[in-house]
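User: Show me a protein chain along with its predicted structure.
Assistant: Here is one chain, sequence first, then structure tokens.
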Amino acid sequence: MKIDNNLILKLENLSRLKLSDEERVSMISNLSDMLRLVEKLKELPTDEVEPLIYINSETNIWRNDESETLISAEMAVKNAPESQENFFSVPRVINLNNK
């Protein structure tokens, strides 16, 4: 895969970023370095290596479910910017009149 300015512009659009020309040049260099590293790793002999399933030898460490003290609804909305009674008040995000 070739890392070029067109690819960076496409990634910039997909990620909703606005990069400067210097940042684009830096991004091309960094991504190219990463791809070279991956290609170098592909050269390693891994035929005799067993796949890693677990990072450590411990499996299924369970804990007891214990109920904890919950805060009241009044305390939950205490620091909210806006609230009505014991509910958070947020701006409307769905316009039901616009079909």
